[in-house]
């Protein structure tokens, strides 16, 4: 056997892509402590904290209106599966956090959807999970958006849209249910 055949199987790593936007980022430079150039490894048992206090938070935002610890992201393995996920917890007593349209108060937490927008104050963060197999750590890759994320990205709807582009809600609003038809019947 060759050394290639005997080599350890390379694991893929779960990567959390976070794209940041704030309307005053040019003047206030609140993201200057974030490293947008490279991926960063985070141990699986560490919570990735975001906030103003650089002694506690791994990702520091230089803005007096941001809480000392704004929120945390915790990597976990789902029960009875090999799948991994993230949970997001609001750690701010003063500022509500929204994940898509779900509002989280202080100490509320939810599973982070595979793609979502996290908002607090004027901050918008697009979070996208790239799945992997490694269990000891995950990676973060930070990006900076030049335009508002809520206008730039169109989040996927929870209902599939058929090839003809007509949403099932169109049929429901007309009191009809969708029927399957052959493409030759069109």
UniProtKB/TrEMBL annotation:
Name the record gives this protein: TRAF-interacting protein with FHA domain-containing protein A
UniProt keyword annotations, A-Z: Cytoplasm, Immunity, Innate immunity
Every FHA domain range: 49-121
Pfam families in the record: FHA
Location of this chain's protein in the cell: Cytoplasm
Cellular compartments per GO CC: cytoplasm
Family: Belongs to the TIFA family.
Kinase as UniProt keyword: no
Predominant subcellular localization, coarse grouping: cytoplasm
GO biological process: innate immune response; positive regulation of canonical NF-kappaB signal transduction
InterPro entries noted in UniProt: FHA_dom (IPR000253), SMAD_FHA_dom_sf (IPR008984), TIFA (IPR033621)
